Amino acid sequence: MDFGMILSPSYGWVEKVLAKQAERIYEWETLFSIRTEGGKAELIQTYFSGEIKSLEVQEGDYVIPGMVLAYIKEDLFVTGSD
Fold this sequence. Notes:
mainly beta; 4-stranded antiparallel sheet; 8 strands; 49% strand; elongated
């Protein structure tokens, strides 16, 4: 099993954390909402399934592009579609 990372795509503030530590997640599930410096809300989704091993941010935190939001222990279950 591999570990994946969910990264911030932009500068802004974490508006919502929709995931919980040790929670199972699935492809294309929304995990975070970030309010960019320009005021736009960005929904951060995952592209793999697995278990959340570590949440690195909380609501209200300021993030920058490439900053790790969460670490995910990936699994091999295919649960999404193209």
